[in-house]
Specification:
The protein has strands at residues 4-6, 12-14, 17-22, 26-27, 35-36, 41-42, 49-50, 60-62, 66-78, 83-92, 100-101, 107-111, 115-127, 133-140, 145-147, 162-168. The protein is an all-beta fold. A hairpin with a 5-residue loop joins β1 (4-6) and β2 (12-14).
């Protein structure tokens, strides 16, 4: 279901939004090797955005042309030694056949042993046509680094390892 609103000049535009998260801990599998951030949960039903929480769960595609605001939140944990975790965005215009790094989209977190932090990446993205999509990558210099998920306890809700909010602007 898509909604329309009036934009400047009186034309209509299709709205789109999604809030995705992941309820699994995502560990750095191989040091200094990029790996995709996964989202296995739809915290709301995506509107105007295509995302599977079963297959290719790191890929998000846009159903309409336009500018999108993206906010990625990663629950970073370092279990041993010092470590750095990088996160950045890639995009595709050919339904995932080719992925290209988005310039100046990287953020980094340097963590001491047994510490945790929340790493935030905020971007604007222009979807230019059919097959336009995004994904986020992480890379760390230690297998002690992870995106930490915590189960719900008592009145506290679960803490996802990764959360992504998308809004058409």
């Amino acid at each position: 279901m898509a909604y329309n609103w009036i934009t400047e000049g009186g034309s209509t535009a299709t709205s789109a939004s999604a809030h995705l998260s992941d309820d699994q801990t995502q560990t750095i599998a191989v040091v200094n090797t990029p790996q995709a951030v996964e989202f296995n949960t739809h915290d709301d039903v995506p509107i105007g955005i295509t995302h599977s929480n079963v297959t290719d769960i790191s890929e998000i595609y846009f159903d309409s042309v336009g500018r999108y605001g993206l906010t990625l939140s990663l629950e970073v944990h370092n279990g041993s030694g010092g470590g750095e975790l990088y996160a950045w965005m890639e995009h595709t215009t050919d339904s995932g056949a080719t992925w290209l790094t988005v310039a100046n989209s990287a953020v980094v977190d340097s963590l001491s042993a047994n510490t945790e932090n929340v790493l935030i990446l905020v971007e604007l993205f222009d979807a230019v046509g059919v097959g336009c999509g995004i994904r986020f990558l992480i890379e760390g210099d230690s297998t002690g680094l992870e995106l930490d998920h915590r189960a719900a306890v008592g009145n506290r809700p679960a803490v996802p390892s990764a959360m992504l909010s998308i809004h058409k602007v």
